Amino acid sequence: MKFLMLCREARLYSCQRLKNAAEKLGHQMDILDPNRFLLKLEQNAPHFSLYYQENHDAKPVLLSEYDAVLPRFGTASTQMGCAVLRHFAAKSVPCLNEAAAFSSARDKWQSLQLLQQAGIAVPPTAFVGKEFEAQDSVSLIGSPSVLKTLTGSQGIGVILAEKPQSAVSILETLTETNVPVLLQEFVEEAHNADIRCFVVGDKVVATMLRQSKAGEFRANFHRGGSAQSIQLSDAENAIAINATKALGLDVAGVDLIRAKTGLLVLEVNASPGLELIEKTNGADIASQMIKYLVRKIVGKN
Ligand SMILES: Nc1ncnc2c1ncn2[C@@H]1O[C@H](COP(=O)(O)OP(=O)(O)O)[C@@H](O)[C@H]1O
Ligand SMILES: [Mg+2]
Fold first, then answer.
1. In the beta sheet, which residues pair with residue 149?
2. Residue-wise DSSP of the chain
3. What is the pTM for the complete model shown?
4. Residue 192 alpha carbon to ligand 2 centre in Å
5. 161 lines ligand 1 (CB under 6 A)
6. Would you write out the chain's pLDDT as a tens digit for each of its 301 residues?
7. HSE toward the beta carbon, residue 162, CA cutoff 13 A
8. In angstroms, what is the span from residue 262 Cα to ligand 1's centroid?
C-alpha cells in the first residue's frame, strides 16, 4: 500500500520510525509538509485535487492517489493540516486520525467537555469569558491553579500559579491579549508526575510514568521530564481507551494524573510522540500503528 504522512520535519524520530515500520511491512510511505500543499475545489472531476510544491522554485505537482494518510503535524499547522485531511476524506481516503477528531483533540477545552460528557473524570476546570471577573474565576477553582492556553503542546502554554494573585494577573493578561486560556485545579498530590498511555484502536499498547525534572512541575519529555515503565490495571487502561473513543480518535497519547479522587485525564494527544515511550517501554508502537491502519483500510473495503 501507499501511505502519506503529513509532517513538517521528516527527520523526527516518530516519523522515521513510522516510515521504517511501514516499509518493513512491505508498504510505501511518502512524507509531505502540509504547509506546502495547495487544495483545490473544482466543478469537474476529481472535484477535490491536491497540489504539492517541494520548494519555492519547484513546479507544483498534482498528487497521486494514496491508500491512507497519517497526520503527524504540530500545533502550528493544525488548520492547514486538518484542511488537507478533509480533502483526503472527501476522496474516501482513510486517515489515522480523522480530521474532526484530530481538531477536537487540538482544542484543550473542547476535549475536556467531550471527556466529561462521556463520563470520564477530569480535573475541575473553567473556561472564562473575557468579561467575567478574573478574581471570581480564581475563587471558583481555588489555589494553586494551572492555566493552559487552548492549543499549547509539549508543556508550552501550561503555567502554574501558586498564589491566587498570580492566577488573577496571568488570567487578566492572557484574556486581555486575546489568548484564550483555561483555568484548572492543580493536582498537587501527583508530585509533578503523570502517566502517558499510548492507545492504538481499543488497546493500550504502552504506558510510562513521567516525572518532571527538579524545579519543574510539567512532566513532558520536551520540558526535561524522565520516564519509567509502569503497569496499569485493566480498569485504569479502560480510562485511556474510553478517553480515546470519546474524542473519536484511532491513535492517542492520553495523559493521566493520580489525584486524591482517583485517576484523572489531563488531555488526549492526537499525534503523540514515539521516542520516549518506545525507548522506555520497549514496545514497537510504530508497527502496531501501521498494522492497525492496514486493518482499518481493509475493513473499509
Ligand atoms: N492540573 C494539573 N495539575 C498538576 N500538574 C499538571 C496539571 N495540568 C498539567 N500538569 C502537568 O503539566 C504537563 C503538561 O500539561 P498538559 O495538559 O498535558 O499539556 P501539554 O499539551 O502541553 O502536554 C502535564 O504532563 C503535567 O505534568
Ligand atoms: Mg500533555
1. 181
2. -EEEEE-S-TTSHHHHHHHHHHHHTT-EEEEE-GGGEEEEE-SSTTSEEEEE-SSTTSPPEE----SEEEE---GGGHHHHHHHHHHHHHTT--BSS-HHHHHHHT-HHHHHHHHHHTT-----EEE--TTS-HHHHHHHH-SSEEEEETT--TTTTEEEE-SHHHHHHHHHHHHHTT--EEEEE--GGGTTEEEEEEEETTEEEEEEEEEPPTT-----GGGT-EEEE----HHHHHHHHHHHHHTT-SEEEEEEEEETTEEEEEEEESS---HHHHHHH---HHHHHHHHHHHHHHHH-
3. 0.96
4. 13
5. no
6. 999 999 999 999 999 999 999 999 999 999 999 999 999 999 988 899 999 999 999 999 999 899 999 999 999 999 999 999 999 999 999 999 999 999 999 999 999 999 999 999 999 999 999 899 999 999 999 999 999 999 988 999 999 999 999 999 999 999 999 999 999 999 999 999 999 999 999 999 999 999 999 999 999 999 999 999 999 999 999 999 999 999 999 999 999 999 999 999 999 999 999 999 999 999 999 999 999 999 999 986 4
7. 2
8. 16
- From 36, 28, 85, select the one nearest 58 (Cα to Cα): 36
Q: How far apart are CA 113 and CA 126, in angstroms?
A: 10
Q: Which three cell numbers stand for residue 117?
A: 460528557
Does any ligand 1 atom lie closer than 6 A to the CB of residue 153? yes
Instruction: Please tell me if the CB atom of residue 125 comes closer than 6 angstroms to any atom of ligand 1.
Output: no
Q: Which ligand is nearest to the CA of 222?
A: 1
If you measure from the C-alpha of residue 267 to the centroid of ligand 2, how many angstroms do you get, rounded to a whole number? 6
